[in-house]
């Protein structure tokens, strides 16, 4: 019953990129072809225009316009706020209604901007929202905060996702804990500590490590088989 059925996945891009760029990054990693028999991906743009400099490893290689799901900042007391997340939730709700139904979500943060410093690096470090947005949406729906009138989002796939630190958003992590999740994390990712915090937020996460940094990697056969096995399991669950 599942041989002609594909999972429908909504994809959330990284900080100051776009849905088109996310699609191109998947193509360059060879994952679009490797997974095309299992998933149909809808890439969308965040509703907020990029509010600052474009990463050095994005602008020379990918054309704009560029978007962001939010822009994170920290006050003098150390409290985090994520400007623009409400608009992003509304945009995701519209995408789920217009392009859905979807079985799950996939999100990515950008590649590490080598040579960045000061405010530019701070913006990159605190604002990488693609994987964070994908996982948060699961918790928002399961807690009844958003996406109430759309079919259940069953799973998420996070490339270098992080756990956000805004108190307004942290409350959604408990609701998403039972959801199936798969996480791809680089051994040389400078912020893998934050990715591990997101991984620990799920009861039964599947984790795939690679030897590179904060990127969408081309996967070795054993890792690709694990990713495909995860998707097969979600496909079987959706077909019950």
From TrEMBL:
Residues 5-110, 130-220 form the Serine hydrolase domain. It comes from the Eukaryota. This is Serine hydrolase domain-containing protein. It comes from Chlorella variabilis.
